[in-house]
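For the sake of transparency, this paper describes our internal protein records without simplification. The record that follows is passed on verbatim for readers who wish to inspect the format:
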Amino acid sequence: MYHVTPILYFPPVETASPEGILAFGGDLSTQRLLLAYKSGIFPWFEADEPILWWSPNPRMVLFLDELKVSKSMRNILKKEVFQVTFNQNFKAVIANCQKIKRDGQNGTWITNEMIEAYNKLHELGIAKSVEVWQDQKLVGGLYGIDLGHVFCGESMFSLVSNASKVAFISLVNQLKTENYQLLDCQVYNEHLESLGCREINRGDFIKIIKRT
């Protein structure tokens, strides 16, 4: 496995392990994170681990026209139970994503180091958030990296039922209006599949990321 050096470089994604780990070490500088996302790579590690860089095969994505919205979800959206904003409180969104308890996880992979790094990306207009409000309280949201034609989703949270789904659907509708090609969801889970996401070959994903 490649040990990341101070040089801004990642090995070819084809050299990743079967689990999808490409490299370890390095830092979370703005330049390295940008290179990673533009190369189809993302960091994912626990607080007591070195930085791990991933490029899984297959890759979980959503082609925007394949979004699935259930009848009950359409009713919730129609009732306007929630209010949705974009990039109004990035710091609160990522902080909630860090704190939320998730099934099968003892801790969080969103370390304080990652929060600092992604807040810097947000200040540069690269990391963006969706906020979901109810009675003027932040109850859900998501954040990710905006590459201009692909949005790389990182994490979402929900303090009340359906809030994160509302964030996800609202993001997809916004990306559609701006002619994005897809939403990167990184790795498979059933919740994402229920929303229309599917796995594609890493090579096909890289072609879309790099516009080749």
Summary: The helical segments are 30-38, 71-79, 90-99, 112-123, 163-177, 190-194, 202-210.
